[in-house]
Amino acid sequence: MRSFIAVDVESRDAIGRLQNAISSAAGWKPRDVKPVEQQNFHFTLIFLGEITDVDAGKIKSKMQELKFEPFTLTYQQVGAFPRPDAAKIIWMGVDQAGGQKLVALANKVIAKMAELGFRADKPFSPHMTIFRVKAGPASIGNISAKYESKTFGSDLIEKVHLKKSDLTPSGPVYSNIYTVEAKK
Description:
- The protein is an alpha+beta fold and 184 residues long.
- The protein has four helices and nine strands.
- The chain has a single domain (2-181), classed as Cyclic Phosphodiesterase, Chain: A (Alpha-Beta Complex), CATH 3.90.1140.
- It is globular.
């Protein structure tokens, strides 16, 4: 099964409104730029790729060892990868304090997974994909500047999930396989 470890986003309505505002302002067509479905909002801490049921059992055991306290993420900023004038991914960021805590949590998860031989392909960056560009790179123009000082909601992060990703013609479907809660 294709899998990853993530924290979910619950402030879906506020981020959905942000998606609508950006899409409208940019004039993007649905065939060119696809918004991430609200039920799929999450921060990937590490992508694991294809795993077996045996791997899943080992991953669950390592996840049980995680110790973290609940923390708040405030959603802010909009940017693009690889760059604003040639975007393939449009993302939303987080506040500095929450971002540092999310990075620390990701590093704990990555370290636990490294004990099982899984490696992160790049350092964790606290961002959530909100659009995927389907047709050629897109320009986000002044969108980053427009949303630089605005916030789009916040969430209390108190769970980490091992997720399964089923790819379908209409897009990915994510389901939680295992969940670890923060230790207060």
